[in-house]
Amino acid sequence: MDVEKEMIIILTSDRGLAGGLNVNLFREILRMEGKKSIYVAIGKKATNFVSKTGGELVASFASEEKSPLELARTLRKIAIDSFLERQVSKVKIIYPHFESTMKQVPRWVNLLPIELETIDTNQIPDTSYQLQNLLFEPNVDGILEDILPHHILTEIYQTILEAKASEHSARMIAMKNATDAAGDLIDDLTLAYNQARQEAITKELLDITTAQKAFE
User: Fold this and answer.
1) CA–CA distance, 54 with 10 (Å, rounded to integer)
2) InterPro entries this protein is in (predicted)?
3) I need a surface site. Which of 65, 137, 191, 205 has the fewest CB within 10 A?
4) Could you tell me the CATH number of the domain that includes residue 64?
């Protein structure tokens, strides 16, 4: 296994007009870049970014090409296959995390290998006294083998939904800002037009007055 190689799945939009949503994501990738990486690009913006920066692109999809769940299943297969075949030592996702309507920030999620440190044990009730009497069928390994793919699917699906929410919010704010800016521009142009019109009327009145005095 090339321990230095990792897979980075990038979630972006297909189109612009979303403020700094995609740009902030790309800055974070460039800031964290150090290890040898291969990329899976979701969204035309991500595909263009990898192409322009000379990265190794192994797969790309338009963000609207598949439903969120179908896309999550596809990404799960790519991630698990690449990891189990020892093509990469780590699989990560970067996406625009939805914090609020006004704020979306780049966030990394480590998919593989699964790190137990990321699990909040404070949310898990203490049932250790019960485990000694539990039987796992067929066995613990078999259960984990079935559960872990579902866990990975859930993680990916969650990031896709958050990326969608972030995109819609960022685009809504960008359009509002553009509308407000257009309104301010119209107000400025209207004021300039009225001033020019007033100056023209004043000049005409002066010309008429001057001409009238010339005939007196």
Assistant:
1) 15
2) ATP_synth_F1_ATPase_gsu, ATP_synth_F1_gsu
3) 137
4) 3.40.1380.10
DSSP 3-state of 25: helix
Residue identified by tokens 């999809």 is 61
Q: If you average pLDDT over every residue of the chain, what do you get? A: 85
Whose CA is closest to 45, among 30, 68, 62?
A: 62
**Tokens read off for 193:** 């037009």
pTM equals 0.75
- Residue 43 belongs to a domain: yes
* Of the candidates 92, 102, 110, 94, the residue with the CA atom closest to the CA atom of residue 20: 102
Mean pLDDT of 160-189: 89
The pLDDT, as a whole number, for residue 128 is: 53
| Higher per-residue confidence, 97 vs 205 | 97
Q: How far apart are CA 175 and CA 182, in angstroms?
A: 10
Number of domains in the chain: 1
